[in-house]
Structure formats: C-alpha cells, structure tokens
Specification:
Elements (H helix, E strand, L loop, with lengths): L3 H26 L2 H6 L9 E7 L1 H12 L7 E5 L2 H5 L2 E8 H11 L3 H16 L8 H15 L7 H4 L1
Parallel strand pairs: 1-3
Antiparallel strand pairs: 2-3
Helix pairs in contact: 1-6, 5-6, 6-7
C-alpha cells in the first residue's frame, strides 16, 4: 500500500502529465520530419495512451519487456502500423517515484522531469531509438533538445 503523500503526489503527477502530454504531442506533430516518421499516418492528429505507475508495476513491465530488473523511468510501447495509420501511436508508461528521484538528483523540478520523459517516450513511439547504435542516439538526442528547447538542458539522452 502506498503512503498517503506518495499517492497524492502520484495523482498530482498524473494530472500534470495529461496536460503536458497534449502540449508535447503538438510539439512533436508540428515537426514535419517527425510527422513523416509515423508509419502511414492517415489522421491529422495522433493519440497516446499514458500511464503513471508505481515502482513495483514498472519493475514488472521492465522485466517482462526488456529483461531488466528494477524500475525504469519511462517505457514506450508503439502501436502496430494499422493503429498508427489511424493516429494511435502507442503507450507511454512513467514511473512517478523514479521521475521524482531523478528530478531531485539532477536538481530540477519534477514537472521538468515529466516533460523530459514524455518527449523521450513520444520519440520512441515514432521510431527513434537510442539503444541500437550511436547514430540513433545522436539523432534522438538532437530531437529531444529541439522539442524541449533551451530551458531543458538535461534531456534524457544527454545524461547517458
């Protein structure tokens, strides 16, 4: 069971994340190069399912889908091509506890950390990947910086 303050914080993060996701989806969609990456998009807009979860749930997902132990900050699950053409990009899952911890370690507000994780997750949904090779990591890092802008010096890729 979650402590009351943890649950309240997670609810606050969920509320903020939904609002922020709308802003970041528009920012990604506004970039023609990124919009072209969406496989056969036939829709004029696109949608993303968002989940904010506990470390326990994230650990389970991380083990199941990536074979890695422990919680991670963000996971992305792209939709198959049929659903992407209709505008449903996929799912982004954020672990609220990890996000808060990372924000404290970096020294910025948790909202900034959520923004970084959302943008990172969205870029994965449209096919960018930093884990396969250096060129992919550089490209994803450039797009994170372009979308987030100068107020966000600590994009996820630049931390690695």
């Amino acid at each position: 069971m979650y402590h009351k303050s943890t649950t309240m914080k997670r609810e606050e993060i969920e509320k903020y994340s939904i609002t922020a996701l709308k802003r970041w989806v528009k920012a990604v969609y506004a970039k023609p190069t990124l919009r072209k990456r969406i496989r056969g998009l036939q829709s004029k807009s696109f949608f993303v399912d968002l989940t904010v979860c506990s470390p326990h749930r994230m650990s389970h997902l991380n083990e199941l889908h990536r074979g890695k132990n422990g919680p991670t900050d963000v996971l992305s699950f792209p939709s198959d091509e049929f659903f992407q053409r209709q505008g449903l990009l996929g799912d982004v899952v954020i672990c609220s506890t990890v996000a808060i911890k990372q924000a404290k370690e970096i020294g910025h507000d948790w909202k900034k950390e959520i923004d970084v994780l959302l943008v990172h997750g969205l870029l994965h949904l449209i096919g960018l990947d930093h884990e396969t090779d250096e060129a992919g990591a550089r490209e994803m890092g450039r797009w994170e910086k372009k979308i987030l802008g100068p107020k966000y010096k600590n994009s996820l890729i630049t931390r690695v």
